[in-house]
Specification:
Elements: H1 20-23, H2 36-43, H3 53-58, H4 65-73, H5 77-85, H6 91-97, H7 101-104, H8 117-131, E1 146-150, H9 154-165, E2 169-174, H10 182-185, H11 194-206, E3 210-213, H12 223-229, E4 232-235, E5 241-242, E6 255-257, H13 258-269, E7 286-290, H14 294-305, E8 310-315, H15 341-344, E9 348-351, E10 353-361, E11 364-377, E12 383-388, E13 394-397, E14 400-403, E15 407-409, H16 414-419, E16 442-444, H17 447-450, H18 455-475
Parallel strand pairs: 1-2, 1-4, 2-3, 4-16, 6-14, 7-8, 7-14, 8-9
Antiparallel strand pairs: 5-15, 10-11, 11-12, 11-13
Helix pairs in contact: 2-4, 2-8, 4-5, 4-8, 5-8, 6-8, 9-18, 13-14
Length: 479
Amino acid sequence: MGNTAEVMEPKRKDPGYRPVAERLNDYEAVERQLHDNDVMIQSSRCMACGTPFCHAYGCPLSNVIPEFNDCARRGQWREGLEILLSTNNFPEFTGRVCPAPCEAACVDGIHDDPVTIRQIELFLIGKAFLNGDIGPAPPKRRSDKKVAVIGSGPAGLAVADTLNKAGYSVTVYESARYPGGILRYGIPDFKLEKWVVERRVSLMRKEGVIFETGVIVGEDLSYRFLKQRFDAICMACGAGEARDLKIPGRQLQGVHFAMDYLIQQNRRNSGEIISPAEKIHAAGKKVLVIGGGDTGSDCVGTALRQGAKEVWQFEILPEPPVERPPTTPWPVWPQILRTTHAHKEGGKRRWAVMTQTFLGKKDVVSGVECVEVDWTREKDGRLKGPVEKPGTGFKQDVDLVILAMGFTAPTRNRIVDNLGVHLNDRRHIQTDDLGMTSVEGIFAAGDMALGQSLVVKAIADGRRTAKGIMKFLGEKKSI
């Protein structure tokens, strides 16, 4: 910091969003981005803390935030990028979809607004692509060791990219038509446009990573086939088993899981053909999204763009406070009310509501029966409940219900089942310090091992697992 008082002068500036009337008519990115001068001013708010909690506590990747902020403050874009890429393979993804736990741990945020870390990160990588500072950089030397990565979501891509840069030969197998996993299919275009994913995959291809799509490992390819051709295998198939709501009427048509709904719209945006039999669409319908998280918000935004008549989002938990509560003190991720762009576009929310029954006409959902609930807290602040509030039952007409209540287990894979790979109590794949499963030479990364988590945590775990694979390959000749 050139000026010791500089950090106190400018206020936080967010880039904002495109106008609602404009963005509801397309699936393009809703969030704007800061310009050069804004980024220099915003980065000057960084206090260059002696103990940077944003780096040491907030960021799962341990991004060296004060240092790249200082480069941005000086307009040293390339130097800032080098610091950023030293810990993060894909800043263009995290800069768009990460909820920024680093900002929740920013010291500025104790008494003022935190630094716009995510926006600075996104600017640095965007500037680099714009200036041509990023291009194919295949490793100068190749190892004779080969690794198969199953799944091309954020964890799988991080494993592949890290290993490839270290000189290993990597083949990524993906069951879908295009690589990217949840980045490509689960996250709506209005949060992460797919050209961003395609650009990174194209770069990885030019650097030597092989992508095989439309391949279901365990069915199209056997474990024996992979074992004969690769020295290590990494499972990175995500947490695809959705949490269900097993109440009366669940069998009715028109009740769908969130990922089925979101994936279908992303496929539609990419020009993939959706058969009439599998079509899920909100046009002209009264839509209810059950689940108050980010996935639920994504469903709200998608339904509004499809032309829904009205969209509600019900959450069983109580409405969070606007200000950081004592139960989640700094630098812990605060349990506060978060209003997304989708809620500002027309989505309505109700809190502390339990859905009890799906109602139907001619085997198609037509409404729901719900009741309000009360929550109490344990002495340590944890929620206790819920308890139904007498006399608060109500009915609501709906034509389409989207279940967005999270995930309970990894996507099923025949190799995992056939080999008896050990699972933990939560039914996630159990791994050791290297990221290796109970079967030697088979590793697991991301949500398959962690459980449902953030993109940034999946990337961090992919990097960690890649290093474990390198250590294993350095000690073992083959599997």
